[in-house]
């Protein structure tokens, strides 16, 4: 039986942003709902602009039941062209990847998005000419290579009204003063200096306009090899030890050149190893961490677990979830990166040693490790403005190639790698392990990951500061001329109103002026640590593997009953590192001091909010962490409302004009998909098609039975 809404008769037009142009459209398109295997859905119009693909139905024009967490730029049924991952056509029930010119047009269209949404459209009832236009238009504008200036970023910047917007106290690191202030904040200005050598980009187009180097490094040294082989300052620890990074020389060189470069490096190392500088430790990340290709391969496998077409696929993969998850290797990569950050933190904190991170370009894994170390060691980087300033310093100005790594222009898949997403995944591990230490929430991190694909902000759409500056000049459209005025992603008011922005701020953030040791002790989840792996080498275990934070009640039950069969990593850390790790975890947490992530076995979890938010089958009805957060926000609103009343009464104002804030978040109606899906939606389990599903219904039998897919055997704790 097919449940459908009748085609809408009234004209529905898309809401276009400044500079947005309608390119093609098709009427009487049927969009399937993904809750279950039925053919329920709604009719509407499918349009493609130079910014997005959008589905418009009669609900698109209504403001009723609008979600509180509404994005003002990208709606629920909008897909920016940069967010499109792959497009499949269905021909006679067979799926085929759509690229380039099409000879035959499909009867169904499936769009997989980089934010893990999946859209299913039926084109059977659409006119043939419209099908040709919309399918070829969507494939062409979202999948074929394009020029940088063809990005919507430039169309929007030229047509939008001049509005610099608020920067929310984010330091942009575009001026010399910003770098000097950062040196002063970290007390690194005694041994390091901000240099202007690259003004006009005369040293290198890959380096930022201004950067910081050891005071003893001369301008001639910086100019000699276009900035290669020069230690660039990232951050200074409270004890004077510093974190540095350096772009390595190409490995394939002729003998004479390579000897000259080696002599140059030896001179640099000797110079910065003498007093007043600490001992220097070199760390070549290309040999100690996975390659970018390994990271891309792991993530490609990992995301396939969450691009769910229908309920049947979800329940089919649910049985072998753990083995599928472990085979992707994504969580193992996260663990290795966190472990490397702990190693660097130990050198800086305990050994008082300078650490020099070395990478070919120093703009990929160097950015990940240096950012993580600062989040772990500097409480300022755990505030919202501090974290945003950190991203600006290490990634945007630091020269991470967002354009290539995100493949925004569809020019080369070889360059693509989710390096920035890897950082956000690692930071999420810390946020969920130590929530009071962070001023921002996991929702903030999720929204930040979504903003990678919204081309109205310049933040994530250039490879370097030089590329941004050279493309900033030029004539705008219409009568305007002069440089483009790009928006920064840190102005959250562009995407969200103040009520929605409340979800980005952690109401339980432990602010620095209120150190309360007794409160911190009670907030520490000691039982969680007792369930983790042994933190000594007395009971090593050769097995490797990971659990995720399960949302299905059955698997959660299994997890509870098999809690003793945890799995350790195969590579034990060195003794000094293990002692440092054990010693820190044996003490109460100082939320404004050093934070070390728990990296043993099941402590590394799947970022459930980002990866499961579009899958109704994975929701917890009326529960999940969001139910707690919603109650806290309600309480805060009530307290603020009472505070306003008290203040006004105190100043003899008319108290009758003050109304308490309505509490719209009814957690009983919320699910763990909130705030990205407002109300819980029922998902239908498949009828019992197989004996496997019948087995799954019998929890007790399944718990008693050995796991068929993942070997969880090992020493019981």
UniProtKB/TrEMBL annotation:
Belongs to the protein-tyrosine phosphatase family. Non-receptor class myotubularin subfamily. Residues 173-611 form the Myotubularin phosphatase domain. One of its GO terms (cellular component) is sarcoplasmic reticulum. It is found in: Cytoplasm, Myofibril, Sarcomere; Sarcoplasmic reticulum. The gene is Mtmr12. The keyword Cytoplasm applies. Pfam families: 3-PAP, Myotub-related. Keywords: Cytoplasm, Sarcoplasmic reticulum. One of its GO terms (biological process) is phosphatidylinositol dephosphorylation. Its main location: cytoplasm. This is Myotubularin-related protein 12. It comes from Sylvietta virens. The keyword rRNA processing does not apply. InterPro entries: MTMR12-like_C, MTMR12_PTP, Myotubularin, Myotubularin-like_Pase_dom, PH-like_dom_sf, Prot-tyrosine_phosphatase-like.
């Amino acid at each position: 039986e097919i449940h459908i809404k009748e085609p809408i008769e009234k004209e529905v037009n898309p809401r276009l942003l400044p500079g947005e142009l309608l390119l093609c459209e098709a009427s009487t398109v049927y969009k399937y709902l993904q809750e279950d295997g039925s053919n329920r859905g709604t009719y509407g119009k499918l349009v493609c602009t130079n910014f997005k693909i959008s589905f418009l139905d009669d609900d698109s024009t209504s403001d009723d039941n609008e979600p509180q967490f509404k994005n003002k730029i990208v709606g629920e049924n909008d897909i920016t062209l940069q967010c499109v991952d792959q497009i499949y056509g269905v021909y006679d029930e067979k799926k085929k990847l759509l690229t380039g010119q099409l000879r035959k047009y499909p009867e169904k269209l499936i769009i997989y998005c980089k934010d893990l949404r999946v859209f299913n459209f039926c084109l059977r009832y659409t006119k043939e000419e419209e099908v040709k236009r919309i399918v070829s238009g969507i494939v062409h504008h979202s999948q074929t290579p394009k020029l940088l200036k063809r990005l919507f970023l430039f169309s929007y910047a030229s047509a939008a009204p001049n509005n610099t917007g608020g920067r929310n106290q984010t330091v942009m690191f575009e001026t010399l003063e910003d770098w000097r202030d950062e040196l002063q904040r970290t007390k690194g200005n005694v041994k390091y200096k901000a240099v202007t050598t690259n003004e006009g980009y005369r040293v290198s187009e890959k380096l930022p306009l201004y950067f910081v180097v050891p005071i003893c490094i001369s301008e001639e040294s910086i100019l000699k090899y276009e900035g290669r082989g020069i230690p660039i300052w990232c951050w200074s620890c409270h004890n004077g030890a510093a974190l540095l990074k350096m772009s390595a020389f190409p490995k394939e060189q002729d003998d004479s050149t390579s000897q000259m470069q080696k002599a140059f490096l030896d001179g640099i190392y000797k110079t910065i190893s003498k007093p007043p500088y600490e001992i220097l430790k070199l760390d070549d990340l290309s040999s100690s961490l996975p390659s970018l290709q390994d990271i891309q391969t792991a993530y490609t496998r990992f995301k396939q677990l969450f691009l769910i077409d229908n309920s049947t696929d979800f329940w089919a993969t649910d049985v072998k979830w753990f083995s599928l998850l472990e085979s992707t290797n994504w969580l193992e990569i996260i663990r290795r990166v966190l472990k490397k950050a702990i190693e660097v933190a130990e050198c800086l904190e305990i050994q008082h040693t300078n650490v020099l991170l070395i990478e070919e370009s120093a703009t990929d894994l160097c950015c990940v490790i240096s950012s993580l170390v600062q989040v772990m060691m500097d409480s300022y980087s755990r505030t919202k403005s501090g974290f945003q300033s950190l991203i600006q310093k290490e990634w945007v100005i630091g020269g991470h190639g967002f354009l290539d790594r995100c493949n925004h222009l569809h020019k080369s898949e070889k360059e693509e790698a989710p390096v920035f997403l890897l950082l956000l995944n690692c930071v999420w591990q810390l946020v969920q392990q130590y929530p009071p230490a962070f001023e921002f929430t996991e929702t903030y991190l999720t929204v930040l990951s979504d903003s990678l694909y919204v081309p109205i902000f310049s933040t994530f759409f250039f490879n370097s500061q030089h590329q941004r500056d050279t493309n900033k000049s030029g004539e705008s459209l219409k009568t305007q001329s002069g440089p483009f005025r790009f928006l920064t992603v840190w102005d959250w008011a562009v995407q969200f109103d103040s009520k929605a922005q409340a979800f980005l701020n952690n109401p339980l953030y432990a602010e620095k002026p209120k150190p309360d040791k007794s409160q911190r002790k009670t907030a520490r989840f000691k039982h969680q640590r007792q369930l983790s792996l042994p933190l000594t080498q007395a009971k090593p275990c050769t097995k490797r593997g990971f659990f995720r934070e399960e949302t299905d009640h059955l698997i959660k039950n299994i997890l509870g009953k098999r809690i003793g069969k945890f799995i350790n990593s195969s590579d034990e850390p060195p003794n000094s590192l293990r002692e440092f790790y054990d010693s820190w975890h044996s003490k109460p947490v100082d939320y404004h001091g050093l934070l070390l992530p728990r990296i043993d076995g099941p402590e590394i979890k799947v970022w459930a909010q980002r990866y499961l938010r579009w899958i109704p089958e994975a929701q917890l009805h009326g529960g999940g962490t969001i139910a707690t957060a919603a109650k806290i926000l309600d309480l805060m609103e009530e307290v603020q409302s009472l505070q306003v009343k008290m203040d006004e009464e105190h100043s003899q104002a008319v108290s009758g004009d003050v109304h308490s804030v309505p509490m719209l978040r009814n957690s009983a109606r919320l699910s763990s998909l909130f705030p990205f899906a407002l109300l819980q939606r029922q998902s239908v389990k498949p009828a019992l098609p197989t004996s496997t599903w019948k087995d799954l219904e019998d929890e007790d039998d399944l718990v008693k039975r050995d796991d068929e897919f993942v070997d969880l055997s090992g020493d019981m704790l």
